[in-house]
Sequence to fold (365 residues):
Amino acid sequence: MERHFYFQPAFGNRPEKIVGRDGELYSVLNGLKEPVGSRNRCILFLGQRGMGKTAMLLEIADRARTEGYIPARVTAHEGMPQSIIEQIQFNGSQFFKDEKRHLSGISAGALGFSFGLTFSDEAKQQYGFRTKMSLLCDRLEEKGKGVLSLIDEVHTSPAMRDVASSFQELVGDRKNIAIVMAGLPYAVSSILNDEVLTFLNRADKVELGAISCSAIKAYYENAFREMKIKCPDEILDEASEATHGLPYFMQLLGYYLTEYSGDRSVIDESVFNKARTSAEKDMDDNVFKPVISPLSNNDRAFLKAMAECSEPATTEELKNWLGNKGSSIQTYRKRLIEAGIIETPRRGELTFAIPYFREYLLKSE
Fold:
């Protein structure tokens, strides 16, 4: 088995094992067994960058297949409704391989399909997303299959309204359909506040926070044992605590610990320090720089001031650091909370929403 089988830290990728999320996975998959219309068939994952939202959707898509569901996994964009249709047709086509002949005449018009899950020309032209989804649900029901839509990076948009309102109507029609969405907390919040999408407030909301260091340590210990890499218990403790429970950083650090253990297959303090430095650089390049790049100079100055303050930062401290810009605190605060960069644990306090971001700001120019 290749060494890096256990650690695959490409951002937005699915690792070999989802660590510390067994309860969340169980809830989603168990919900698929519940009656149509159950709250647990409509899930909203909320999580900051690096918390493994995309990995969860990938894992759920695979496991749902074994529960008799055809998954359609997409990233939210304006062409999303059509992408969902195409994914269902592609992933469900295997169950119609024996149906080669074309339907004709009244049958084709009535069913909306020319063969398998391919729509007739008439259906393509006349029907919208909601009707096509209804037809696909009915066709797949013949094979004992349901439909599961998985939407990443959700945000309020016309396409999102089309998909969500259609889902509500399909549930009302008792179609065997479920939906799982994931996004940054502020983006999900904007969806819940959208007048057209208020029914999603009844969805089951699951926050993907930091995973426990004990779960990370257990995974590291097992992975290194399987790879025959020696790692002392004290370094396992250091490594698991260094992740701050961030799944992406866990993958990065595990990857570099494996890489730098070398031919000796030993992880000592020097290997750990080197691996941690490399993992932090990847975090800088893949998470923090893309976060800060689109921000204004004033927003960056606000974040830098927050980093210089105590943790959490108070409004009074920030006013002192910002000087004549202190009067604009509420403007910066609102904008950066909506961007998912900072959060408010208590009234009058601010903290960074992403682990290591404070350290990144302190060391950057």
The chain has three domains: 21-207, 230-291, 294-363. Residues 101-110 have pLDDT under 50 and may be disordered. The chain is about 50% helix and 10% strand.
